[in-house]
């Protein structure tokens, strides 16, 4: 979930600038149980880590139809496409929420107890 290219524990410090290749200025970071999300000043979102519940939001309609195509783990920060610039992010244990500049909120991940605020309770794999 550190986005450094492996699932190994890291006992040294690193900067998000290194993992995002110096292209983006990170203004916010949130972490779930085994995933992390970074938001840039430009409103881009990068995700990494465990995706077993769709908490990275990387699953499309195509991969929903064939779940084996969705990555269960992402070892490097990967850009997530959202419908607009992101200004805030929060993570639950196995879920992620995105606040866009226009005020809309998107969530993805585990929804077994309705934590995404939608019914019926089931996981949502794309924002």
From TrEMBL:
RCC repeats lie at residues 43-102, 103-127. Transmembrane segments: none annotated. It comes from the Eukaryota. Keywords: Repeat. PANTHER family: BTK-BINDING PROTEIN-RELATED (PTHR22872). This is Uncharacterized protein. It comes from Neobodo designis (Flagellated protozoan).
